[in-house]
Structure formats: C-alpha cells, structure tokens
Request: fold
Amino acid sequence: MTRDLTVTEVRLTPILIADPPLLNTQGVHQPYTPRLIVEVVTADGIIGYGETYGDAKYLELARPLADRLIGRRITDLNGLFGLELAVDASRVENAVDVGGLRGVQTADKLRLSVLSGFEVAGLDALGKALGLPVHALLGGKVRDFVEYSAYLFYKWAGHPEGVDCEKDDWGAALDPAGVVEQARGFTERHGFTSFKLKGGVFPPQEEIAAVRALAEAFPGHPLRLDPNGAWSVETSVEVARQLGDVLEYLEDPALGTPAMAEVAARTGVPLATNMCVTTFAEIKEAFTSNAVQVLLSDHHYWGGLRNTQHLAALCAAFGVGVSMHSNTHLGISLAAMTHVASTVPGLHHACDTHYPWQSEDVLTERLTFDGGRVAVPDGPGLGVELDRDRLAFLHRRWAEDDGRLRDRDDAAAMRVAEPGWTAPPTPRW
Ligand code: GKR
Ligand code: MG
Reply:
C-alpha cells in the first residue's frame, strides 16, 4: 500500500509538569517545568510524537516552524533543517535560560532545539508508516539496552511553604548521609549502578565529603560530580586532586573552554561537558585544546537524533568519549534518547536522565529502568503511546498559570524561600 506521508497538521501542546525542589548553583527547580509536546499528523492519519523545551521563547518559534511543515513530507527531514526562520536575537540573548546551565544561547541553537522536536516526531511517524523502530531508521541498534546513571541532587523535602504543588516522596538530601540515602533509593527503585551528583550548591569541601560517602557506600561504582562551572580553575584542580581516585569524570568544574583546558592540563581526571561545547561551532577549540574528554550530547539542543549521531562520529574522530546530558523531560524524550543511544557504537558512559524525578508523564505507559537500563523499544516508531487525558490535564495547568511558571527560572524559585537571592557570580568558589 502506498502511504501519503504529507504533513497535514502539526499540533503543539505546551504543558507544565511537576518537578521536585532540586538544587543547583543557580537556585532551585520551580514546582512545575514547561515542556512542549509536538504531534505531526500525515495525510493518511499517522501521528508522530516529539518533545522539547516549552519555555516561551521556544513556543514563539515553534508555531511559525510548524506552519512551514504543512505540505512537506516526513521523508524530507533534511529539508526541515534547511528551513530558515528569522529568530529575534534579542529574545535569545536577553532571555532567562536557567543562568546558562545549558551552555551558550544562540538563535541557531534555539532553532535547532525546536526542530529537534519536529525531527523526532517525523521519525516516529515514519517508523509507524514503515512498521520499523526509530533506531532502525537511524541505521540500527548496536545494543539492546541503554544504561543510565542515577542523577542525584541536593534537595529540600518540599517546595517552600505556601507554594501549592505536588509532593514528592524522596525527602530532603542536604548532606553526605542524605545524598547516600537518595542514591540507595535510586538503586532500590531503578537498579542504577553509576551516580552523578549535581554540585555547585554547597562549598566544595561539603560536596567532596558527599562524593567520598558515595564511594564508601558504593565501592567501585562510577561517580561523577557536576557543579555547572561554579568553581575557579584552582578549586577545580584541588577537587580533582582530592577525588581523583573515585571519579569517573568531573563535569564542567569551571566555566568555558579556556578554563576547562587549564584544568584538564593540570589533572588526570577526565572532564565532561554539557556547557562549554553545545554547538558544532564550539568543537574545534575545545577538542584541539584538549579541554574535554567526554562530550555530553543532548538531542534537543544539538538538533535531533541524526545530529547526535554526527556529533558522536566527530567525538570518535578526536578520541573524545560521548555520553548524554539531560534536563527535566518526559517519556517521549527518554524514548528518543534511548533509540539514538542504542545506535552509537562508542557510548562508554551511562547517560544522564532526569526521568526518575518526574512523577508525571504524557504516556499511557511509562518507560522503566531495570538494572539502571532501558530496553530499546522495537515496536514501530518510538514505541510509545500518548495519553490524551493526561496531556489535556497538563496543558490545562499551563493554560491556567498566570505566566510565572512558563519559563524555567531557578533563581526566581529560590527567591520564594530566600528573598533577594540572585544567582551567584561565577566562579562562586
Ligand atoms: O536540572 O538543575 C538541573 C541541572 O543543573 C540542569 O539544568 C543541567 O542542564 O542537568 C544539567 C547538567 O548536567 O548540567
Ligand atoms: Mg552538566
């Protein structure tokens, strides 16, 4: 049967999803985080799903891009990336973007972040049309399971008093014992065997103590610490010296490629990044100055699953390891991450994911971790199904919000508990 793969409709549904009070160097997560769910509908009724950032500046770009998809075929993904769209640069540079926790902000990166949602939806629809999983469209999986690491955060027991939101059942983690207890929770619930601690929250000695406590509780397990560039070169070198025997890698200890290169030259501990290299333009300087040894890709801002494969090939050519970064996300994105990760030969580090922190989803059936791994779906497309009632519920929450939560702003969330808080200048320590 010949299919008509022409795009006839693109549905964009912004939602707000519950998020626990996770701390980072900028502040704390808001009680709800915006995401955008994309549905691409073809002439013969196939629907492909995608997911990306849902902050206002992404939404503004998503609508005009979606309109330009109508009449194109989902087999023309390369053409999709050729679509030029005028991005108002001031919207990009002046926008709050969680203090740059996701690296440089450029108009093109914004465009790619939106396009990635459309690309994933297109691949999902194409897979459904052909009866093939997305990983097959990407050349085929080279593993049946993708390993993820437990993403540990310092956190409060709940959002500040007076904030009306969902409760989580993780409790507080504000010292080494709390971090170890949280890690045990991750192993009990999901079987994770490697651990990443989000740092940059407390003075480095306290975070060193937390990593030491993890090393004692989980001897021989891979450990990572990520302060999101909060440390000076000297502090980074000192932390690397004190934790060198237990760290798999140190993630973005200092801000920017020159500082990372200096740290790398002074320690044998591998450095990973999702901050100083988040666009193809940043690769040359970082790789030739040996600033990073592990690149954490993110299909959202690198522009989709095929760009993630290109990135992995570049990393392999330079002898740089590759793994995956994560921000708050739902199951559509986890499925997309799992499909592409299954196709990358040199993936030697467990990928990051926030998914276990998300109590809500838009899927009829959530993805699960077994032994810290997600089984690569083999059904057509991404292999996930949308729960329309949940989607409508989460969209209502977005629609009824007075605008305060429509952009992720960790510093604003922190001000609810600590009036006057501003994200500290870098380096903080
Ligand atoms: O969710 O607080 C967070 C993280 O700090 C996130 O925003 C970062 O982008 O997870 C990310 C990272 O690895 O840097
Ligand atoms: Mg990071």
